[in-house]
Structures are given as structure tokens and as C-alpha cells.
């Protein structure tokens, strides 16, 4: 049974962590086709800059996982930049929306990837659906699948709070769970998970985005 409570003075209704992920997945199943057409997630100078930077640092043929890839716009762009990229998303319907090959249904909290099997992880606007209490575990999982000195590119929604938000381009009531992070909080979480941050860039669209480039510390954590 879903446990829902309201944060005092905010009017924001929250669900428990497990249901937040499951219900958001259900929403993406319903809106997959609309999302794929509405969100042109592969365009934009800011995105090309970040992915180009990663491709340059890694070199051609590097193994990259696009975690929370949705329909795969950015997975495709990573491949165009010479990387061996695979998309991972919890929603099977989202993965099939653009019929891009090499996509895998997976939960970012328990990735079906061998320890140390990747050169890089790219996660753009996907961690924002993970309840705050689960974030440290997800970051630890990102670190697990990276080789020593592997790279992480992470885009989060900058701000405060978490809760349900209506999908703006749907007339029916479809909601997704959103979690916002301050720069200080996500930096602390990344460092606690065994990453060192070497770059960050802010971008504003309908939300305020913070993209962090980080490396996996090679020492035991």
C-alpha cells in the first residue's frame, strides 16, 4: 500500500521511496510515445559540449552506459561521437519508443553490469526520479560498474525539495516523482560515494540543471 504524507507548510505530497520509483515507471509506460516525440533530448549546444568532452577524454570505442536513457536520444548521440554506448532504463516502453538497438531494461539501483566493466557512466536528468534516501546507493552502484579512474557525467535538477509533478504536455493526470539537489549536497554525496569532481556547468531551460564531471577514485572505498 502506498504511504503518502504532506510536508508541513509546502502542500507537496510525497510517497514512500519504493512506490515513488514504481509509480514514476508506470507514468513513463503511459507517456513513452509522447515523451519521445516531445523531448528532443539529443539536441542543444550544452549537451553536445558535455558529451563531446566525455568522448575526447575517453577516446574512440570506450564503453559507456547511458543510465536512465529513456528513448535513447543521448545514447545515439554518444555513439555518433565514437563511443560504444548502451542505454539502460527502467521503462521497457520508453526503450522501444525510437527502436534504437542495444538498449537494456534495468534499474539503476542494481545495474546488470560487471564490476569495473565500464569506462564511463552518463546519467542525464534521470537521478532526479530517485528518492533522496536512495541516492547514495545509486551513486555507489555507478562507482561499482566503473573501472579505476573511470568517468561519470551526471546532470541533476538543481534546487530544493522533492515530490510529485504533473506531466505538463498531457491532459490526463500523469505524475512523476522529482528530487532536486543543491550543488553542495550532490557534491558531498558524490565524494562520499568515492568520486572526485573536476568540472561543473549550469544550464537553464524549464529547470535549472547542474552537470558534474567526476572521476572514480581508484582506492578502495
Automatic annotation (TrEMBL):
Gene3D superfamilies: Vaccinia Virus protein VP39 (3.40.50.150). GO terms for biological process: methylation. Residues 66-152 form the Methyltransferase type domain. Signal peptide: none annotated. Keywords: Methyltransferase, Transferase. It comes from the Bacteria. CDD domains: AdoMet_MTases. GO terms for molecular function: S-adenosylmethionine-dependent methyltransferase activity. InterPro entries: Methyltransf_11, SAM-dependent_MTases_sf. PANTHER family: TRANS-ACONITATE 2-METHYLTRANSFERASE (PTHR43861:SF1), TRANS-ACONITATE 2-METHYLTRANSFERASE-RELATED (PTHR43861). This is Class I SAM-dependent methyltransferase. It comes from Actinospica durhamensis.
Amino acid at each position: 500500500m502506498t504511504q503518502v504524507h504532506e510536508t508541513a507548510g509546502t502542500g507537496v505530497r510525497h510517497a514512500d521511496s519504493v512506490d515513488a520509483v514504481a509509480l514514476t515507471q508506470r507514468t513513463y509506460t503511459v507517456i513513452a510515445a509522447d515523451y519521445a516525440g516531445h523531448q528532443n533530448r539529443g539536441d542543444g549546444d550544452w549537451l553536445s559540449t558535455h558529451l563531446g568532452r566525455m568522448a575526447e577524454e575517453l577516446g574512440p570505442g570506450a564503453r559507456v552506459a547511458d543510465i536512465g536513457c529513456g528513448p535513447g536520444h543521448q545514447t545515439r548521440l554518444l555513439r555518433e561521437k565514437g563511443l560504444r554506448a548502451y542505454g539502460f532504463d527502467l521503462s521497457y516502453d520508453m526503450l522501444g519508443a525510437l527502436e534504437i538497438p542495444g538498449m537494456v531494461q534495468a534499474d539503476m539501483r542494481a545495474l546488470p553490469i560487471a564490476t569495473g566493466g565500464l569506462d564511463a557512466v552518463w546519467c542525464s536528468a534521470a537521478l532526479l526520479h530517485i528518492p533522496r534516501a536512495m541516492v547514495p546507493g545509486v551513486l555507489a552502484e555507478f562507482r561499482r560498474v566503473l573501472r579505476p579512474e573511470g568517468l561519470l557525467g551526471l546532470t541533476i535538477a538543481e534546487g530544493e525539495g522533492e515530490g510529485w509533478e504533473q506531466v505538463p504536455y498531457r491532459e490526463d493526470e500523469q505524475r512523476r516523482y522529482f528530487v532536486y539537489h543543491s550543488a553542495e549536497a550532490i557534491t558531498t554525496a558524490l565524494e562520499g560515494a568515492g568520486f572526485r569532481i573536476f568540472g561543473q556547468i549550469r544550464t537553464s531551460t524549464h529547470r535549472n540543471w547542474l552537470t558534474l564531471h567526476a572521476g572514480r577514485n581508484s582506492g578502495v572505498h
